[in-house]
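Handout, page 2. Input:
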Amino acid sequence: MKRIFFAVTNDLVYDQRMIRICGSLAKAGYNVILVGVQFNSSIPLQNQDFGQKRLNCVFTKGRAFYIEFNIRLFFFLLFKKMDCICAIDLDTILPCYIISYLKKIPRVYDAHELFCEMKEVVTRPNIYSFWKRIEKFSVPKFQHGYTVNEPIAEEFKKMYSVRYSVVRNFPFLEPLIIPGKNEKYILYQGAVNEGRSFETLIPAMTEVNSKLLICGDGNFMQQVKRLVIENNLEGKVIFKGKLPPGQLKEITRNAWVGLTLFENKGLSNYLSLANRFSDYIQAGIPQLCVDYPVYRSINSQYKVAILLNDLRPANISKALNGLLSDESCYNTLQKNCLAAREILNWQQEETGLFGFYKNIFEPGG
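Output:
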């Protein structure tokens, strides 16, 4: 049985993409171990079909955290037997490269995004320079890899001459009954980070007759809370924090509208395929989404969202009010979601994942 280690800087409970990937590979017969971080706020690990390990760190954010975690990750992995190692994003790539080199095993890069092109990186010259040096050194050495969509794969090919596969982050197709919805609340789920358009979304909510639920946490949370106070929206914008996948699915299923908004600052945002976009489709709820290439391409096929290319508050509030009041439009989008979810799901995507790892261990087989 081939043993694969995966490394992330996340709390494992909330990383639905890695739960899906590791769970699928475990059921396919691989011995899978996912390594992440133990935070002070971490809840107990959930039982999974794969192994899980959290590493304790003194630092919990900033460059000191990444340096400490990478050192701890290296020494943890150094004494483990494995047949392959996979770095999840740039912040785990160095120890995974060194371990693969020392152990002479295949190495894989799973790029959830263009790490150096995220707004919080690309807009800070010193931080950008730090991570770009790591990217230029490491990525060309990872000839095996996959990412979440074709445009990002093309960027890696253009920058580093690596040909990465595409494994889109779609949820499992599960039975769905649309519940009766007495409250038409709007939902944002995911990281509360820079570049997610909160600076215009929160003021827009002053003109929307609905509550906004924010499920997640991140580096922009304090600024969002200040925006809520400045716009007198306490009680109208509800912060739910990070939620376990099962609880989050229930809140998503009962929402009226989902939000997938990003500022066009940083190529990673512009070329993104956010987890929440497909989570909303799978839950059968229409969404307000940015008019960027990957979303535009999917929406041109399935018509599951209202796309917006101008994210000023007045435009956001107008689009949301339309989704709240136009029953004909809403019902059409919902019907399209229910059709699209039969195609845009993990059962379809995992076949590509199986083929990728089979080729790692049985090239040409």
